[in-house]
Design a protein that fits this description.
The radius of gyration is 19 Å and the shape is globular. It contains 13 helices and no strands. Helix 1 packs antiparallel against helix 10, helix 1 runs parallel beside helix 12 and helix 9 crosses helix 10. The chain has one domain. Helix content is 74%, strand content 0%. The protein is mostly helical. The two termini are 17 Å apart.
C-alpha cells in the first residue's frame, strides 16, 4: 500500500531534522578553525574534497551514466546556492559566536516561504506560517541582547540564509532528476569551482583575512571531516525536500539553534543565557505545531 501523503511529510520532517543537526556539528568543527585559515579557503578545501569523494562514490555505485548531468542549469543554480551559503556562513562562524551566526541564518525559512509560491507554485498553509512565526520570534528573543553589537558581521549569515533558500527551492524543482547521491555530487561539482574562484579573487584583493597560505595538518583533517558530515546532512535534507514541500521542510532548520547552543556550551564554554532558553522554547513550540499539523490521520480499513 502506498504511504499516505501525511506519512511522507512526517518522514520528510525527520530526515530534515537529522540533516540540519548534522550540519550544526560540522559548523562547530569549522568554528574551531577560526584564525588558523581563512573561511573562504576552508570552504574551498571542504567542497573540493567533497566533490572528489562524491565523484568516486558515484562512480562505484551508479557507474558512468550518473556523470550525465540532468537539468544542468538547475544544477548550476543549486551549486551557486550552496557556494553562497557555505562561504557566507563559514565567514560568519569565524567572526561571531556560533549560536548567533546560526540564529541569524534562520531567516532562511522565511525567504524560502516567500519564494516558494513564486518559483514552485506551492500554497503555504496557515499552520506552516504560524510555525515559522513562532520559530522566528524565538530567534529574535535569542538575538535581542546582541544584535546591535554584532555589526556588519551579521550580514554573513544573512547571505548564508539566502543561499540555503535558493538550495531548498532548487532541490524541490530538481526532485526526481537523479538519485540523492548523484544530486549531492552535482551540487558539490558545481559549487567547488565557484567557491575556488571566490577564494582566489578575494585573496587577490589583498584584504586581511582572505590571504591563503599552506594550512596546518589539523585544518586539512577537520576540512575532510566537515566534507563528510556536511555531505551526509545535505543528502538527508534533499531527501526531505523530495517528500514534502519546501515551505514545510525549511522550518526544521531551527533545530540547528538547539544543537549549536549545546555545542557552544560544551566546546567553547559559551553558556546560553535566559533569552536563549526562552527563544529555544518558542522554536520547539513551532516545530511541535508543524509536526501536529501534519500528523497522519487514521483511516479505517473497509470491512
Amino acid at each position: 500500500m502506498t504511504a499516505p501523503p501525511q506519512q511522507n511529510v512526517r518522514a520528510a520532517l525527520l530526515l530534515a531534522l537529522a540533516g540540519f543537526a548534522i550540519l550544526s556539528v560540522g559548523d562547530a568543527v569549522v568554528k574551531t578553525m577560526a584564525g588558523q585559515w581563512p573561511g573562504t579557503a576552508v570552504a574551498m578545501l571542504r567542497y573540493c574534497a567533497g566533490a572528489l569523494g562524491l565523484a568516486l562514490l558515484v562512480a562505484l555505485v551508479e557507474g558512468r551514466k550518473a556523470f550525465r548531468i540532468p537539468l544542468p542549469w538547475l544544477q548550476l543554480a543549486r551549486g551557486a546556492g550552496v557556494a553562497l551559503a557555505t562561504i557566507c556562513f563559514f565567514l560568519g562562524v569565524m567572526a561571531i559566536p556560533l549560536a548567533d551566526a546560526t540564529a541569524i541564518q534562520f531567516t532562511s525559512p522565511i525567504i524560502t516561504a516567500m519564494l516558494a509560491p513564486v518559483f514552485l507554485k506551492e500554497r503555504t498553509g496557515v499552520a506552516v506560517w504560524l510555525a515559522m512565526a513562532l520559530a522566528f520570534a524565538g530567534v529574535l528573543v535569542v538575538l535581542r541582547p546582541n544584535l546591535l553589537a554584532l555589526g556588519p558581521a551579521a550580514l554573513y549569515p544573512l547571505g548564508a540564509a539566502a543561499g540555503m533558500a535558493c538550495l531548498v527551492i532548487c532541490n524541490r524543482k530538481a526532485a526526481g532528476a537523479a538519485s540523492p547521491l548523484a544530486m549531492q555530487f552535482y551540487a558539490a561539482l558545481m559549487a567547488a569551482p565557484i567557491i575556488t574562484a571566490a577564494t582566489l579573487l578575494l585573496a587577490a584583493t589583498g584584504l586581511p583575512g582572505f590571504q591563503v597560505g599552506l594550512p596546518p595538518a589539523s585544518v586539512v583533517v577537520k576540512c575532510l571531516l566537515v566534507a563528510c558530515s556536511a555531505t551526509g546532512g545535505h543528502m538527508l535534507i534533499y531527501m526531505a525536500a523530495v517528500r514534502a514541500s519546501a515551505a514545510v521542510v525549511a522550518p526544521m532548520t531551527y533545530v540547528q539553534l538547539l544543537v549549536a547552543g549545546a555545542l557552544s556550551w560544551a566546546i567553547f564554554d559559551t553558556v546560553p543565557d535566559l533569552s536563549t532558553f526562552a527563544g529555544a522554547a518558542l522554536i520547539i513550540g513551532g516545530g511541535l505545531l508543524l509536526w501536529r499539523a501534519h500528523k497522519p490521520k487514521v483511516v479505517p480499513e473497509p470491512e
